[in-house]
Specification:
This protein is an alpha/beta fold. It has helices at 33-43, 70-82, 99-102, 109-114, 138-153, 173-194, 210-226, 244-254, 265-269; strands spanning 15-19, 47-53, 90-98, 118-121, 160-162, 198-202, 230-233. The longest helix is centred in the middle third of the chain and has 22 residues, at 173-194.
Length: 280
């Protein structure tokens, strides 16, 4: 297990709001909510946000979302409510929505009302039935990335922009980001700021890809200059994956991100849910 970073364990900085369990199709079978909570507590994480995949309705042509409706959120909340939560840990029960596949229908009133927070993806182009560029050019790929991100940021109730611009179907990313350009990046960042949406440093495969980190360095740097808020995450699909939170934190630190730029639990929760988190 990675050692705990020094001087950043104060609540609510060392937190992860994007954690999957076996309630997601991509979660490992032994990734129970209890195992995630136990590992988070042992690691010294101050807040853990479950965000299993949920969409209001099945998506035609994409079996990934079959059975991933609001009942998944109800199940996660029921399990958390039945567990004994360590007093040092705040647990949120939210969702990962998918604008790429479901568009503006990625959330509805019921999901918003029952989720503590909403992670939303705008780059799941690898899934079946996802939109494709109008033509096979860098400009068309850039246009599609911007279209999806802009639409996602306009959805009411989104808390966090998940893994921005990261998708295996959009490679190499550097020339696509260049085609997006600073003006359109700034437009998207301004939307995120104005709508209270944090931008995610994802410690999954993206953070270990030098090409992705290099390609998005300008985007994250511009977001810092403009005053955006950020979150760090392991995007864990198994308890062992929570060690990737340190990778995300190191990446954010390398770009100059400080504690005050990270969204707090209180900010994340503000106005997001009728259900309070499990607090002690």
């Amino acid at each position: 297990m990675a050692s705990k970073p020094e001087a950043i364990l104060s609540n609510p900085i060392y937190a992860d709001f994007h954690v999957h369990t076996r309630l997601s199709p991509c979660g490992k079978r032994d990734a129970t909510l209890g195992s995630m909570i136990a590992r988070a507590h042992a690691k010294g994480i101050s807040a853990l946000g479950f965000a299993d995949h949920v969409t209001p309705l099945p998506i035609p042509g994409c079996n990934f979302y079959n059975g991933q409706q609001i009942e998944v959120l109800y199940a996660a909340r029921g399990i958390v409510n039945a567990l004994e939560i360590p007093p040092e840990l705040t647990v949120l029960v939210g969702v990962e929505a998918d604008y790429t596949l479901a568009g503006s229908n990625c959330l509805d009133a019921d999901v918003r009302a029952h989720a503590d927070h909403v992670i939303c993806a705008a780059s799941h182009f690898h899934l079946p039935a996802a939109p494709t560029p109008r033509e096979d050019t860098l400009e068309a790929r850039a246009d599609l990335q911007v279209e999806m991100a802009r639409g996602m940021l306009a959805v009411d109730g989104v808390s966090v922009w998940a893994h921005p611009f990261d998708c295996t179907e959009m490679r190499p990313l550097a020339p696509i980001m260049a085609a997006i350009g600073e003006v359109r990046m700034a437009e998207l960042i301004r939307m995120a700021i104005d709508r209270g949406v944090a931008i995610e440093f994802n410690g999954g495969p993206a953070a270990t890809s030098l090409a992705y980190c290099d390609a998005t360095a300008g985007f994250f740097g511009l977001a810092r200059e403009m005053g955006a808020r950020f979150t760090i995450t392991a995007d864990a699909h198994h308890a062992d994956d929570l060690d990737r939170l340190d990778v995300a934190l190191d990446w954010a630190r390398s770009l100059g991100v400080r504690d005050g730029e990270l969204m707090t639990v209180e900010e994340l929760m503000a106005g997001r849910s009728t259900h309070p988190p499990v607090l002690h």
